Amino acid sequence: MLEKETSNTTVLPTLSRPGLLVMDVDSTLIDEEVIDELGTAAGVGERIASVTARAMNGELDFRDALRARVALLEGLPVSIFDDVYRAVHFTNGALALIDALHGHGWKVGVVSGGFHEVVDRLAVDAGIDYWIANRLEAADGRLTGRILGDIVTKDVKLESLRTWADRMGIDMNQTMAVGDGANDLPMIHAAGLGVAFCAKPKVQQEAPYRLNDRNLVRILDFLE
User: Fold this and answer.
1) Which residue range is the domain that position 16 belongs to?
2) What b/e string do you get for 2-35 counting C-beta neighbours within 10 Å, with b at 16 or more?
3) How far is the C-alpha of 173 from the C-alpha of 188, rounded, in Å?
4) Which of 46, 131, 153, 181 is the one with CA 20 to 30 A from 60?
């Protein structure tokens, strides 16, 4: 079901001009949470899934929650990424949405609190134009339980939306942001069209638009 706040009077993006869609990955572009899939492989699935749910609802600091979950993955062989990649599924309508937007001169980016080791392959499969994710440290073919470089946070998601829009030379009114977790809220609020997609309660409450039909192509119904 499509929903919007009745008080929202923002002029929505249009398909008649080039624009930009930025999406979350886990539970948005794909049905699964990659960190949870890795946790299951490590035998700590329930512990990791519990922390994931609390972090996505804004109950925990995202950086601390991610570090704690990644630490539990220490010792996993890097080959696990091949298994996880084969196990995840694009959300219904995701590829149709991307193809439709490309057909109107739009570009699509994803910013993920997940991991390059899986997101890179998903981005190529889906024909995504821009992407950013975290990267896990490995040594001797096994995960060390640590993250390399800066962690992708809500601020990084927001900055990516702005940076890619600037690179395209488009106004923020011609952007869309879609996600399900609390760390997606800044970009959802900043975009010309911000949509909570089958989202956590906090995001449902705060986002200006909501889509609770798990079919991403219905995002097009919001556009002018």
Assistant:
1) 2-222
2) eebeeeeeeeebeeeeebbbbbbbbbbbbebbbb
3) 12
4) 131
Give the model's confidence band at 49: pLDDT under 50 very low, under 70 low, under 90 confident, else very high.
confident
Distance CA 45, CA 195 (A): 29
Number of domains present in the structure of the chain: 1
C-alpha 49/C-alpha 42 separation (Å) is 12
Q: How far apart are CA 91 and CA 15, in angstroms?
A: 22
Q: Tally the residues of the chain.
A: 224
Q: Which of 187, 165, 31 lies closest to 108 in space, CA to CA?
A: 165
Q: Under a CB-based contact definition with an 8 Å cutoff, are residues 151 and 66 in contact?
A: yes
Sequence-distant (6+) residues with CB within 8 A of 46 are 39
Based on its alpha-carbon atoms, the radius of gyration of the chain, rounded to whole angstroms, reads 17
**Joined tokens for residue 207:** 């986002």
| CATH code of the domain in which 139 resides | 3.40.50.1000
Mean pLDDT of the chain: 93
Read off the tokens for 165.
């829009």
CB contact at 8 A, 174 and 18 = yes
φ/ψ of residue 79, rounded to 5:
-65, -15
pLDDT of residue 4: 67
Under a CB-based contact definition with an 8 Å cutoff, are residues 191 and 172 in contact? Answer: yes
List residues with catalytic annotation.
24, 26
What residue type is 211 in one-letter code?
A: L
